[in-house]
Task: structure prediction
Amino acid sequence: MRILVIEDETELRELLGRALKKEGFAVDLCADGVEGLYFATEYPVDMAIIDLGLPGQSGMEIVRELRKKDLKYPVLILTARSDWQDKVQALELGADDYVTKPFRMEELIARVHALLRRSAGHAAPEVEFGPISINLSSQDVRLRDQVLDLTSFEYKVLEYFALHPEQVVSKMELNEHLYDEDADPDSNVIEVIIGRLRRKLDPEGDWQPIETLRGRGYRFRAKSD
Amino acid sequence: MLGRKSDSAPSLLVQLLFGAVLALMLALSLIALAVDRGFRSAAEGALKERLESVVFLLLSTIELDEQGRPVIDDSLAEPRLDQPGSSLHAGALTPHGVWESPSLMGVTGPPAYRLIERGRELFRGPEIDGSWYVFAIGLGWEQPDGEIIDLTLWAAEDPDRFQSTVAGFRGDLWRWMGLAAALVIIAQLFILFMLLRPLREVAQDVADIEAGREEGLAGRYPRELQPLTTNLNALLKTERSNATHYRQALADLAHALKTPLAVIRARLDSDQPPDQDDLERALSEMDRLLRRQLERAARSTRRTLHQPIEVVPLVRRLADSLSRLYAEDQVRFEVEGSETLTAYADERDLMELCGNLMDNAAKYGRGRVRVTIEPGLPGARHAGLTIIVDDNGPGISEQQFADLLQRGVRADEHREGQGLGLAIAAQLVEAYDGRLEQVSSELGGAAIRIQFPPR
Result:
């Protein structure tokens, strides 16, 4: 999943970037409001973390612009003020949650996971697809109650599928959402990862959760029948 | 305090006095004009009567000779008519002859006279008849042979006498009017001076407060000034209370920061390299204390003089926002109360107050929160307001409730967790002289009631 962070304090921005990357997210970092709005509207973002007090364009204005352009991905607000008036204003403009500074990184990461999950329509962190169950919070994946050993990139691909079930996902889309701006992935990597995931999720070959749609991409099946 | 004399409006005393003098002058002039006219017309009436009596005197002594000429006995009952050069004259004329009083002797420009119709009388002033007041009557005189001859009798007076009477009266009138005006102005000056005394007293009392000699406006002020002095006292009280709160907050903050600072100092002073986790814990504790204490100082700031805020729409906005935040828990918010109910409070404070209580109710309830807004006790200027936030959670015991309220008392005593919002809400309500208490819950959980007092 690709997360955009718009925060003008360099230390905090870098810290957020590192922590989110460590969690397996592709991360884009912006230091000011104008550039932030450009990224937020032009890049394939899955979620944005926006500081309210930004130079150039305020966080509130960015949220307003995003929603005006009908971009519906979740937005988490970072703010130094914890007044209800500010919170209500941000939520009314279209933000989905807020975190007040200073915050614990674990709490922020938990909120990020919860928002992504909620935006995909999953109420609980535990989601099930046929014999597979994925805990989007602890990142545990089980096949018929057996814990599967996935690499971090395999998990990222599976998580993206889990948050977009029954949807056609092109290879390009996977590239865009799983790698950040600077990365230059080998075009074969995705195919190799998909192949490995198929073997791990469906060792018997009787379920085939990831369909290949020739010329279009892949589709993750939500049910095993 | 800097004096900005050039910006001040003209003195109230001068403005009032100027207005009063103008009105007084106008009124006195109109009165004088009316009295003058009245006197003049009365004096003219008296003059006419005088001339009329002279004419009738003449009538009692006049005879017509055989040729029909008027003849009057030499000795007249009115001596002024006999006296040449006097101001009173009389005469009689018929178509056959004329008689004039001896007083007319040597008078240049005597009154013009002519025969007038029988039965008519006329009275004319100097504006018509040269420089004379003239009264004349027309009669028919029957001769012994039965012939009736037209006879006109007249009397005239020089207007000087009349004019000097009127001028004398006018002089007296304006002198007395002037004296009355002067007395009224002096009286008004005195009254205005006395009326404005309470304002000077307020100014003096405020100066005493500024100099630290007084705590508030304690004098007996007229009823009209009481809204001003009451509000001024409220502002003073607020200002003093805020200063105390800020001082307390700073003292609490300094006290609270000493512990984590001591931890850092001890770690740096020890022989072993400082432990990253320890330092981080101390720093985040300092961060938290700083934030909490600044918020508390701002929240416990006392407020006065507010515009009315409609409560129900504000609570609805909060409910919508909280519904999004608690989307996963599917919390249902119910808002009950008339749309027109208002609170005289700062919008940010009211939102903070309701937001904290509703957040708690959503967090600890089991999916149902009800906010009821009701009018409070009636007041002189505006009524009070009651807000009840109820939930269907496990509820809070009395002891827990007291503990929760106590948590916000000192920054270094409180720990992050359940119910912090309640302590913040309690401080906010206190800043408005209101009450926050736990009441029996209709939904079976915790119900918190806030009461804003009437004003």
In short: Chain B touches chain A through 20 residues (CB under 8 Å). Residues 107 and 280 of chain B are 129 Å apart (CA to CA). The longest strand of chain B covers residues 133-142.
